[in-house]
Amino acid sequence: MRITLAEAASHLKHGDVVAVPTETVYGLAASLNEPSAIQKIYSLKNRPANNPLIIHVASASMVSEYAQVLPPGFTELAQEFWPGPLTLVLPAISNKIPYIATAGLSTAAFRVPEHSLTLKLLELTGPLVMPSANLSGKPSATTAEHVENDFGVDFPVVDGGPCSCGLESTILFWNGSTWVVARLGAIEPDAFAKGLGYMPEVSIKGSQVPICPGQMYRHYAPKASLGLVHTIPDDGGEAVVGFSDRRYSSKRKLYSLGSSQEPLEAAQRLYSVLRQLDLDGVGAAIVDIDFPENGLWLTLKERLEKAAHSCSSDS
Ligand code: TXA
Ligand code: MG
User: Fold this and answer.
1) Per-residue pLDDT averaged across 219-228, rounded?
2) pLDDT at 310
3) Is 52 close to ligand 1, i.e. is its CB under 6 Å away?
4) N or C: which end of the chain has fewer CB within 10 A?
């Protein structure tokens, strides 16, 4: 059910959950001051309780209310990338943030999203926690229709059109001495070097426990099994996820990520394509991953690898 900004603000103030657009993916929002609404988010998504949520704020200046320190580089990063698809994980002032939002961690994640509607909403409501607005483990939502497909047509959603990035924010974690990339996202790691004066290390898998608890779980996955390939085989799979400027066997239906020269277009289409496979009841698809291993392509490849990988738990 599409709702106005004023209705969304009213729902949130009364402890309800609504879906809102951001530039990355749609988010399932609850007020940071409403622990019972935050609990509803976990139930609605079927999200593991040990996977914390990102606190979305209207401006960087609000972060100091909740963070113990603003580490070196914080101001430069915030100035260059906020509002925008960057999340910063900092030591938290624990008694200012409900336990359930941080899943009991001593840190908290912050982001100023770049969407005019949601920035206005944040000014009306104050900080909102927001995971991606999808059922845990499933592809994220990049349109209001996607949200309704997951949570029902009566679920309240502010329709802000299709998301301009199409992939989640990049997460940078302050480890006490440097910033570390803890989730690949819409901003490529190289982009941080100028503001920080060094290239942040990328630590997304880790040998044991990942920095972001969410990285432990299955993500972004359609029901269809996905086979990622550099060269398309003659047989196997009813469908191919690939590019409009490449030729594939006419035996398989093409689910197009757009031009093989346009990573942003592929990012914008990715979750719609994965969701369409399910809507069409596709059982198995071949995915063309013959693209460069850099920039936004690298994030796309990581998302596809997670979508293709079978784990027992979901996020
Ligand atoms: O683009 C985005 O970031 C979207 C939009 C809605 O803002 N949100 C999003 O939220 O992707 P979610 O919940 O799907 O993913 C948040 C990730 C999870 O992997 C979680 O484990 C991690 O952020 N995270 C949250 N708080 C953390 C913390 N204190 N330390 C480490 N990781 C944290
Ligand atoms: Mg998510």
Assistant:
1) 91
2) 56
3) yes
4) N
Question: Which stretch of DSSP H or E encloses residue 111?
Answer: strand 107-111
**What's the rounded mean pLDDT across residues 132-137?**
96
What DSSP designation does 154 have? T
Q: Are strands 179-183 and 253-256 parallel, antiparallel or unpaired?
A: unpaired
> What tokens appear for 297 in the block?
């392509």
Q: Measured from the CB, is residue 109 less than 6 Å from ligand 1?
A: yes
DSSP letters spanning 230-256? SS--SSS-SEEEE-TTS---TTSEEEE
| DSSP H or E segment with residue 115 | none
Pocket test residue of 54, 97, 167, 205 for ligand 1, highest count of atoms within 8 A of CB: 54
SS3 of 42-95: the string is: HHHHCCCCCCCCEEECCCHHHHHHCECCCCCCHHHHHHHHCCCCEEEEEEECHH
Cα 141–Cα 272–Cα 230 angle in degrees, nearest 5: 125
The secondary element (H helix, E strand) that includes residue 174 is: strand 170-174
Beta bridge partners of residue 55, listed in sequence order: 110, 129
Encoding tokens for residue 80? 């260059």
